[in-house]
Amino acid sequence: MGRGALLALAGVSISFADCLAQPGDSAGVPAVIAADSSVAAGAVVPADASLRPIARDPGCHLSGREVRLARAGIAGAFVGGNVTLWHYFKQAWWSGERSDGFFFNADWDQEFRDQDKFGHFLGGYHLARFGYDGLRAACVSKNKALFASAAYAAFFQLQIEIFDARYKKYGFSYPDLIANTAGMGLQVAQEVYPKLKAVKPTISYLRSPAMRNRDNFPTELRPSLDYSGQTYWFAVDVNSLLPAEAKRYWPSLLRVSAGHTITDWINPQTGATQRAQRRILLSLDLDPEHLPGDHPLWRTIKHTLSYYHFPSPAIQLAPGFRAIPWFR
After folding, report:
1. Are 3 and 89 in contact (CB under 8 A)?
2. How far is Cα 37 from Cα 58, in angstroms, rounded to an integer?
3. Among 168, 192, 216, residue at a domain's last position
4. Domain boundary among 165, 192, 219
5. How many CA atoms are closer than 13 Å to the CA of 247, on its beta-carbon side?
């Protein structure tokens, strides 16, 4: 299913949480918290005598009133976002024939060759990331923010599978649930073991021939289902993994990416479904986070863009080896 792709595409937009806090900030922006609370554990938190004490991270630089406003804003953003996504899912997916009862669907290796599972993985990753960044910006402790964001990502996508089980076309897909959980797990692991942040899941998208020709045949095809146009990557920040003496030999702007996409799973002339082939790719990729400039807004923009794979040369390893001068 294409819900994971929708969440993945949303993941490369500028999020409310990203605007509130960027990793590594410790001062200078009103709504910023310290990335390492142990550094600021001895800091004096501004008192607000007009409000009751509120539980918050020791590294928080907000007053009690600012914490309440931040948490109200985060709560409003998540409620509004969830309502919007739920309405879209209901209109786009849950309008077909109902099933006789709850049923499971092990939808591995269908015509689109598990491309949807990569979308679910990236969707779970970004749901957990948004939740964690938002809660940290609202001065929730690291452990509580990790637990709550992981639970949020897991339950949000679990409810989708439960509703899918009520429709004959879908069913409860435990493969989707596995992919959702794996994406959420990567985000949690990266916060627990920061060195893992050298590996970042990214996405690129270019409309497939079927998508460009969809007005000429009956189809439900839309960007979230345009699996042949989606490419999912794992980008490695090579420079950050090198020892200090070797860093000068690898440009920090370049990362190495491994990607997965598929050939046409919808015939661009007839609109009929067909079994696609997996495409495995290797590419040198631009890492916007290493662009010069350190203004907080610019850091937010760079961090957001780093989840997108920009057009670049690539090598296709399967099906068949070939060089691609400019992969989009």
Report:
1. yes
2. 6
3. 192
4. 192
5. 9
21 with 35, same domain: the answer is: yes
Strand ranges for 171-307 from DSSP E = 199-205, 230-236, 254-262, 278-286
SS3 call for 35? coil
Structural domain boundaries, residue 63: 1-192
How many residues are there in the chain? 328
175 and 186 in one domain?
A: yes
Six-digit token string for 152? 């949020």
113 Ramachandran zone, left/alpha/beta (phi>0; psi -120 to 50): left
| pLDDT tens sequence across 4-38 | 766 665 555 544 344 444 333 333 333 333 333 33
Number of domains the chain is built from = 2
Residues contacting 211, CB < 8 A, separation 6+: 221, 223, 226, 228, 229
pTM score: 0.84
Task: For residue 314, give the nearest of 286, 285, 283 by alpha carbon.
Answer: 283
Q: Model confidence over 216-275: pLDDT tens digits?
A: 999 989 999 999 999 999 999 999 999 999 999 999 999 999 999 999 999 999 999 999
The arithmetic mean of pLDDT across residues 308-317, rounded, is: 97
Separation between Cα atoms, residue 127 and residue 166, nearest integer Å:
24
Q: Side-chain half-sphere of 313: how many Cα atoms within 13 Å? A: 5
276 and 290 within one domain:
yes
> Both ends of the chain: CA-CA distance in Å?
23
Strand partners, 261: 279
